[in-house]
C-alpha cells in the first residue's frame, strides 16, 4: 500500500520521537527520525533493533554514519568535512552521478552529491524486511537541466537490516519527454573507517584488469595476492565479482560488500602528499580510511525514456577470525 506525504512524515517522525518505534521490546528506540544535523542541515536517523544506526543527510542523499550494534562507527568522515553547499561532504557515502571523475563539462563526480534531495512521498512498491529505511528522490531543476539537459528521477533507498547491515538501492529512470536517451556513470563512493591502512587487505579484486588513474587511466592486470597499501592508490577495477572483502587486521573486523548491477569497483586512498592538498581532509587521516566504491564507470549506463536502472550495495561488518596467524578472507568471501 502506498504512503502519502503525510504518512511518510508520520513514519519518519520529525525531531520529537514521533517516528516508527521498535515492536515488541517496549523500547523507546525510534526506527526512523528526521532531525537537524551539522549546520542545521536535515538528516534522517535510522535505528536498528539491537543498537545499530545510520544517518543520511538530505544534502547529497549522503550517508554520513553507519554504526554497529556496539555503537562503533564503521564509516570514515573527515574531521575537516565541510557540511555546507556546494562542497560535497568528505567521507561517508557520496553518490557520484551522472559522471565519475573530472572529464566532461560537469563538476567532478557529477552533481548528485551536492544537491538537496527530498524525502520520496510516493516511491514505487519496493519490498523490505526492514522498518528502518528512508526513500529519497532527486529530480532536476530547470537550472540543472541547463548543465545536463535530461529529465530523470533518481530514487535512493537507504535501509538498515535487522542484523545491522546497510543497504543502498539506487533507481534511475529516464523521464525525458523529447524521446532522447541519456548516459551516465555512477558510484557509491564509500569511505570505510580502518584502524591502520598498512594493516588492511582487500580480497576479491586479485587478477582483475584495472584502469590506473595515477597513470593516465592506462589498463593493467592486478597480481594474484590480496591488495595491500603502502602508497597512494586510485584504481578502477573492471567487471569485478559481486562480493569484495576489506580485512582490518588490527580491528579484527571484515567489511563485506555485495553489489548488484554495478560492475566496477574503485579503490582510492590519497596517501600523505595528496592529503595535504585537500582542504577538507586532515593530513594524517589517510591512515584511517579506505574508499572501495561500487561503481559503473568503464561502460556507462544508457537509458531510453521510460527505462530504469537499478544498482544495489549491501555492506556488512563481521568479526574476522584468525587462521594460522592470518585472517581468512576466503571464509568470508565463500560464505553467503
Ligand atoms: C576517487 C577518485 O573516487 O575520488 C579520485 O578515483 C578522487 O581520483 C577521489 O581524487 C576524491 O574525489 P573528490 O572529488 O571527492 O575530492
Automatic annotation (TrEMBL):
The keyword Isomerase applies. It comes from the Eukaryota. It catalyses: alpha-D-glucose 6-phosphate = beta-D-glucose 6-phosphate. Residues 1-13 have a biased composition (Basic and acidic residues). Keywords: Isomerase. GO terms for molecular function: carbohydrate binding; glucose-6-phosphate 1-epimerase activity. Residues 1-21 are annotated as: Disordered. Its EC number is 5.1.3.15. One of its GO terms (biological process) is carbohydrate metabolic process. The active site is at 189, 293. InterPro entries: Aldose_1/G6P_1-epimerase, G6P_1-epimerase, Gal_mutarotase_sf_dom, GH-type_carb-bd. GO terms for cellular component: cytoplasm. The keyword Isomerase applies. Pfam families: Aldose_epim. Substrate binds at residues 90, 108, 113. Belongs to the glucose-6-phosphate 1-epimerase family. This is glucose-6-phosphate 1-epimerase.
Amino acid at each position: 500500500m502506498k504512503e502519502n506525504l503525510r504518512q511518510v512524515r508520520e513514519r519518519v517522525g520529525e525531531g520529537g520521537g514521533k517516528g516508527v518505534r521498535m515492536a515488541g521490546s517496549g523500547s523507546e528506540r525510534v526506527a526512523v527520525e528526521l532531525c537537524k544535523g551539522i549546520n542545521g542541515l536535515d538528516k534522517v536517523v535510522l535505528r536498528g533493533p539491537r543498537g545499530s544506526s545510520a544517518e543520511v543527510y538530505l544534502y547529497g542523499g549522503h550517508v554520513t554514519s553507519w554504526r554497529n550494534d556496539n555503537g562503533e562507527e564503521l564509516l570514515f568522515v573527515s574531521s575537516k568535512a565541510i557540511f555546507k553547499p556546494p562542497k560535497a561532504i568528505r567521507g561517508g557515502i557520496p553518490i557520484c552521478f551522472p559522471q565519475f571523475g573530472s572529464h566532461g563539462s560537469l563538476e567532478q563526480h557529477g552533481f548528485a552529491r551536492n544537491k538537496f534531495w527530498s524525502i520520496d512521498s510516493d516511491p514505487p512498491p519496493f519490498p523490505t524486511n526492514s522498518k528502518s529505511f528512508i526513500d529519497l528522490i532527486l529530480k532536476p531543476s530547470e537550472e540543472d537541466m541547463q548543465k545536463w539537459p535530461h529529465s530523470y528521477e533518481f530514487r535512493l533507498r537507504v535501509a538498515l537490516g535487522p542484523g545491522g547491515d546497510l543497504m543502498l538501492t539506487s533507481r534511475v529512470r529516464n523521464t525525458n519527454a523529447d524521446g532522447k536517451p541519456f548516459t551516465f556513470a555512477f558510484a557509491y563512493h564509500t569511505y570505510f573507517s580502518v584502524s591502520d591502512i598498512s594493516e588492511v587487505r582487500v580480497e576479491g579484486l586479485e587478477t582483475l584488469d584495472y584502469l590506473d588513474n595515477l597513470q593516465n587511466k592506462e589498463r593493467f592486470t592486478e597480481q594474484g595476492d590480496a591488495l595491500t597499501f603502502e602508497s597512494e592508490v586510485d584504481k578502477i577495477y573492471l567487471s569485478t565479482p559481486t562480493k569484495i572483502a576489506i580485512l582490518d587486521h588490527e580491528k579484527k573486523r571484515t567489511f563485506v560488500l555485495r553489489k548488484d548491477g554495478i560492475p566496477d569497483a574503485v579503490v582510492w586512498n590519497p596517501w600523505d602528499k595528496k592529503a595535504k592538498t585537500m582542504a577538507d581532509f586532515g593530513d594524517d587521516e589517510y591512515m584511517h580510511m579506505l574508499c572501495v566504491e561500487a561503481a559503473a564507470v568503464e561502460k556507462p549506463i544508457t537509458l531510453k525514456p521510460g527505462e530504469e536502472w537499478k544498482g544495489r550495495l549491501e555492506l556488512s561488518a563481521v568479526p574476522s577470525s584468525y587462521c594460522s596467524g592470518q585472517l581468512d578472507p576466503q571464509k568470508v568471501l565463500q560464505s553467503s
